[in-house]
Every structure is written in C-alpha cells, then in structure tokens.
Amino acid sequence: MKLVSWSVVWAFSRGGKKNNNGTGILLLSDIFGFEDSSTRDLAYRVACNGYNVLVPDLFRGDPWPKGRSKALFEEWLAKHNLERVARDISAATKWMVDEFVAVGISKKLGIIGFCYGGGRLIDVLAQDQGAYFGTGVSFYGTRMNLTTAAYIKVPVLFVSGDNDQPCPVGLLNDMERGRVVIFEGRGHGFAHRPESPEDDKDAEKALTILRNGLSEGLAA
After folding, report:
1. Model pTM?
2. What top-level branch of life does the organism fall under (predicted)?
3. What pLDDT score does 2 carry?
C-alpha cells in the first residue's frame, strides 16, 4: 500500500518522538488523492495541532485527474471497488495501531474524511464499532449510507454547506448519530479547497470546529 511521504504522514516534535498528544489521525482524501496539495496542506495543519496524521492512497496511484470529463467519472469510480478501498483503510489503521503499541501509546485514533473520504468514514466507523477509533469528522461526505451510519458507536461531527449538492443538508439531518454543522452559502469543498474570501473565512471557522471536535471526541 502506497503512503504519503514521511514528512506529511508524521509530524515529529523537536525531541524526535511522535507528536506531543500521542494521538493518531487517519485522514481520508477526496477523489483527487493523497498527493493533492490541498490534502497535504490540510494534513499538515492537523499535524501542527499535535496529531500524528496518516493519509493512505485510497486509489492506488489512480486518483481522479482534474480536468477529465465528468462523463467518465462513474467508469473511473467503478475501478475502485469499495471492498478493496475498505481493505486498504483497514491496513492503514492496523499500521497506525501497531506503531502506537510499539511506543506504549494506547489512545484511540481519530478519523477525518473529505468528500469521497467523508463518505468512506461512515463505512469505517460502522465497521470499527469503537474498537480503534474514538471519534470522526466528516466534511461534506459523498455517497453516505444512512443504514450503515446507524451502526456507528462513537461521536461523529458532520460539516457541510447549505449549497452543497453532493452532500445535501437533508441527508445529514437524517443521520441518527452525530452533530451537524452547516455553513450558510457554502458549497462543496469550501473547507479544504476555498475559492473565495467568503470560503476562506468559513474554512478557518470549519478548521477550528475540526480541532475542537477531535479534542472533545477523543477526550470522551
């Protein structure tokens, strides 16, 4: 399984050890993949808050290329079978757990997902049943399954905009578990791919909510 470069996967303290709070975060990317600059920037910002961040390559070197015709999207997505993606996420989770066991840390992991990754976050937490993950934050998740979400056992924070067609507000409000935060006037991807001054302003607010959500969820 291909992983991001070590400089992005882990942020080290000056003492040469993993970050001070000793907590690992699995970050699931959008369709543009783990090497995309927006994903890397977000991973770095999360790591700067004391977390050790791992970003797996969900698409095995074949992310959706920017500029490709949308008519080809479903054909591309079908190549990335959900069962295979789930296995890769499980492998990444096990790798993180083993890393923390090796250094005597037993804190639960957190998980963040954006767009495609936000949808897969639901699948992961429903399958995990609280075994490894203590909380999750889903940003405008796509193709989320309400039935699957009912099996989640840990706190989940859902963040989206009210102008987001791929992640309709009505779907989020129907989630049986979790807290929903909706940003007025914001569209898909505003938090990690802001395109206007208004997006920038709300993106900063969303990242503050992310930090607080991780802290509260993992503390609980």
Report:
1. 0.88
2. Eukaryota
3. 46
